[in-house]
Amino acid sequence: MELHHLRAFEVLAQELNFTRAAARLHLSQQALSAQVRELERRTGTPLFERTTRSVTLTEAGRTLLQHVPGILLSVGQALAETRRAATAASGPRLVVGLAGVSGLDLAAGVVRAFREAHPDVDLSLRNVGFGDASAGLASGDTDVALVWLPVPEGITAVALTEDPRLAVLPVDHPLARHDEVAASDLADEPFVWIDEMDARVRDYWTLADYRVGRPVRVGARISGFEDSWAAVRAGLAVAASPASTLATLPGADLVTRPVRGLTPAVLGVCRRTADDRALVHTFVDAAREAAGRAGG
Question: Which among 19, 68, 99, 200 has the fewest CB atoms less than 10 Å away?
Fold first, then answer.
């Protein structure tokens, strides 16, 4: 069984749509279908039920899906440990992933506090693309991460602080006429969309819980914050973002509004669940303490 087969299976199981899954994987639909068929051949059973209108998991597929995230994370863990072993002679090293938080005072405070308490550690920061909700943990490129929750399965998160989510709208949008918008009204608008993002995480940022089963309206496909603001400025989509990330919105043609009934964003410090190294736990503890001081 090849890792790329498992990755293709996981993405298709999340999307239940060959077009979207192929786009996330940067494959043609024919190539994705071939990988799924090969995995089904190797497992000896159908993993999906396909009709002209829908794709659903079989019972065997649901069983395999319970194991795949852990398998992929284990590979990421193995790669991370291998890289660390190769550089062990140079002393302790920690790579911190940052996803959409590098400008936050708390994120800087966490890193600064850890650096001051552990000057012997070779500390590296890595900004990770908006589409990677694990901030490099799943691939093994980072050891810990500061990222907005939720995160994909197989990653343990400790909440550090909450931040209101604000609606980001074009200045001429009908909802911008109000001092406050309802979460259900915002949820019915077209949203920015990231193909490669974990489906559960993407549902959170596109307000799936406030559409009562209705599918999201995709306004623009993006890859990062700057793309997001360009799409909103053009009137293609709206967004719901943590207030602390919106202090330097580009241009006067974007406005923010409080969203009535919308749960706040939560910033967390994260690690791979299977990674129990003392240095990783030390960073998590330092982040929790720094957040406590900032909040107190």
Answer: 19
